[in-house]
From TrEMBL, chain A:
InterPro entries per the UniProt record, alphabetical: BMP_lipoprotein, Peripla_BP_I, PnrA-like
Family per record: Belongs to the BMP lipoprotein family.
Bilayer disposition of the protein: Lipid-anchor
Claim: Signal is one of the keywords in the record: yes
Origin: domain of life: Bacteria
Major subcellular location class: membrane
One Gene Ontology term, aspect cellular component: plasma membrane
Record key words, sorted: Cell membrane, Lipoprotein, Membrane, Signal
Protein name: BMP family ABC transporter substrate-binding protein
SUPFAM superfamilies tied to this protein: Periplasmic binding protein-like I
Automatic annotation (TrEMBL), chain B:
Protein topology in the membrane: Multi-pass membrane protein
Annotated TM spans: 14-31, 66-85, 92-114, 154-175, 208-232, 252-271, 291-309
Protein's recorded name: ABC transporter permease
Keyword Cell membrane: yes
Pfam annotation, one family: BPD_transp_2
Annotated source species: Halocynthiibacter styelae
Keyword terms: Cell membrane, Membrane, Transmembrane, Transmembrane helix
Species lineage: Bacteria, Pseudomonadati, Pseudomonadota, Alphaproteobacteria, Rhodobacterales
């Protein structure tokens, strides 16, 4: 009997201690899905890297519709996940509600900087700065003096990419033309490679020979068509250079992976109530250079971009942020 | 001349965009003429797009992919047939079920096979339909007017585009000039009369859904191996439903179906090209241009085109009186 009691007591202690340690971090992906080779996949890679390095485990879910945002967030909070990362501005209002219901849980949200809450860490990226650099590269690589931009869903965040890109293009070549298209006005615009390919052909027929796709899964169709038609393309968020070696000029990197990795590494000690601005100065954004695009970027191009990057960090060049006033000085 | 080039480019784009609609529309045409309403066109296209890209990626052979796509589409069509012909179920519910089934299964199976989150790998050269260059297209390029029309608009599409365009007159001939076509139309109007004449209603309706499956299979294969290079979840993006609208617009006739689909393709091509059009001081916003095909659908369905009368026995299971 005594033995039994000891045994049960030990079992209970183990149970309690595992319950305390079970506070796994969680990540909730946006509608594009975690294998979009882009934004969400970057978040997934950051989480995976943390899991591989620490041997820990994390919870994850891909939502299928707008209505599931709040539901997914609340379920993870109820299960005791801590901290919880949500990817994308679409979660802003859901997080605003749920974070108040779970004051002891820590949350991090990417692409949002306007929420209030002591248990929220907001991480906003300066996409316009990264887009500015790839815009310069596009203008220098273009032979027709016409470059293209294909966005996903028509929202201010994507216009921020477009505006930064256009400014970069004009900085490198004031005579260049930028052809801009948005794939659509609904979330389906993130997953329509057929339309992406068609828009690419349209832009090529308008003279574009370098095309920047900021369109999630739709961008895969853009990169594919650009490779088929023999023009250059620029990937987004993750490094997409390897998808079509020799055809992808570079990729505008948004280090969502680092942001997620940092949150997971901090765990329950995550500093919240802060808004992080991830720009060029802290390597939050940038462009990719690897063995697949070495030959496409000349010394001259690399030097010009390095100089511009230094000037932006020093504050000598200010890239206009579309989201600050919903308008763009160049187009 | 620049205006002319632009017109050619937009028409070229319109043809590419119209083909999946056309194939799906003709699929619906056969099915509905035979008295089986089919709102599962979307699901069949999606499943065919997935399997043809999956098989083409695994084998590197686009023809095997095409046959796999047609096969899965026919299987789904037969499920619809069994539910609505043999078991006399509700045809709309069965169609919706097929759409859901395809949307879910493609992603789940795709993840299990390729581990890319429901996508298939990008298809290599032989895994896709390449563009067919017609004879002397290059040489004629510089001939004014006719040159660009021949070399860009007519030549340089994939094999499936020409197949789809040939199916239009073929469908007309089969439906309106053959005994099979007459019987098929009769079974959609008055299955009782067909049965009285000693012809099997069930057999005719099954052949209608099988033809529908084959055509949807072509449409799906064209999406993933002709237009794109691989499958992405939900890549049919509502084209099956637009095809249904085009079918009503065409009043269940093949040549008019071609016209309706080209019109939808043209609208989409224009919306892609001109995201905002300025007419004088008035600027038409991009949202309106992109919504235009859908607005047109509503206008059409509201009866703007006159009375569109569906096959009389459509949607109703045939019950032999005993």
């Amino acid at each position: 009997m005594t033995l039994m009691r000891t045994f049960l007591g030990a079992a209970a202690t183990v149970a309690i201690s595992t319950a305390a340690a079970v506070a796994d971090p969680a990540v909730i992906f946006d509608l594009g899905g975690k294998f979009d080779k882009s934004f969400n996949e970057a978040a997934f890679n950051g989480a995976t890297r943390w899991a591989e390095e620490t041997g820990g485990s994390f919870l994850e879910v891909e939502i299928q519709s707008e209505a599931q945002r709040e539901q997914a967030l609340r379920r993870f909070a109820e299960r005791g996940a801590n901290p919880i990362v949500v990817t994308g501005f679409g979660y802003a209002s859901a997080l605003d509600t749920v974070s108040k219901e779970f004051p002891d849980t820590k949350f991090a949200i990417i692409d949002v900087n306007w929420l209030e809450g002591d248990n929220i860490r907001q991480i906003a990226f300066a996409e316009h700065e990264g887009s500015y650099l790839v815009g310069m590269l596009a203008a220098m690589a273009s032979e027709s003096n016409t470059v293209g931009f294909i966005g996903g869903m028509d929202i201010p965040l994507i216009s921020r990419f477009a505006c930064g890109y256009a400014q970069g293009v004009k900085a490198a070549n004031p005579d260049a033309t930028v052809v801009q298209n948005m794939t659509g006005t609904t979330p389906a615009a993130w997953n329509d490679p057929v339309k992406g390919g068609e828009l690419t052909r349209t832009q090529i027929s308008q003279g574009a020979d370098v095309i920047f796709a900021a369109a999630g899964g739709t961008g895969l169709g853009v990169l594919q068509t650009a490779a088929d038609e023999g023009v250059l393309s620029i990937g987004v968020d993750s490094n997409q250079n390897h998808l079509h070696p020799g055809s992808v000029l570079t990729s505008m990197l948004k280090r969502v992976d680092n942001a997620v990795y940092d949150v997971f590494s901090a765990g329950e000690d995550l500093e919240t109530g802060v808004t992080l601005a991830m720009g060029l100065e802290n390597n939050g954004v940038g462009f990719s250079l690897d063995e697949f695009n070495e030959s496409l970027l000349t010394e001259e191009m690399r030097a010009a971009v390095a100089e511009a990057s230094a000037k932006i960090i020093a504050g000598e060049v200010v890239v206009h942020d579309y989201m600050s006033d919903e308008s763009c000085p160049v187009n | 001349m620049e205006v002319f080039d632009t017109i050619i480019q937009i028409s070229d784009s319109a043809v590419r965009l119209a083909i999946p609609l056309l194939l799906a529309c003709l699929a619906g045409l056969f099915s509905e003429r035979g008295g089986i309403f089919d709102i599962g066109l979307e699901g069949k296209m999606l499943a065919a797009a997935f399997l043809s890209a999956g098989v083409a990626a695994a084998t590197g052979n686009v023809w095997l992919g095409l046959f796999a796509g047609i096969a899965v589409s026919v299987v789904l069509a037969l499920i619809h047939g069994v539910a609505s012909i043999t078991f006399r179920g509700d045809q709309l519910i069965s169609g919706v079920a097929i759409n859901f089934l395809a949307a879910g299964l493609t992603v789940v199976i795709g993840q299990a096979w390729f581990g890319l989150g429901g996508r298939t790998p990008a298809l290599p050269g032989d895994g896709r339909f390449s563009n067919l260059e017609w004879p002397v297209a290059d040489a004629l390029k510089d001939v004014p007017v006719l040159g660009p029309v021949y070399s860009e608009l007519i030549s340089g599409h994939t094999f499936l585009v020409y197949v789809a365009l040939l199916i239009v007159p073929l469908s007309w001939y089969v439906l309106f000039r053959t005994r099979f076509g007459l019987r098929l139309r009769a079974v959609g109007e008055n299955p009782g009369a067909v049965d009285t004449a000693g012809i099997s209603v069930v057999k005719l309706r099954y052949s209608a859904v099988i033809i529908c499956g084959v055509l949807c299979g072509l449409a799906g294969a064209y999406l993933s191996t002709g237009l794109a290079a691989g499958f992405v979840k939900d890549m049919s993006a509502g084209r099956g439903f637009i095809a249904l609208a085009a079918l009503i617009f065409a009043k269940w006739r093949p040549v008019q179906a071609l016209m309706a689909c080209l019109l939808f393709g043209l609208l989409e091509a224009i919306a892609n090209r001109y995201q905002s059009i300025e007419i004088g001081a008035l600027e038409i916003p991009v949202q309106f241009m992109q919504a235009l095909p859908y607005i047109l659908t509503v206008v059409i369905l509201a009866g703007f085109i006159g009375k569109a009368i569906p096959p009389k026995a459509g949607g109703e299971p045939y019950v032999k009186e005993r």
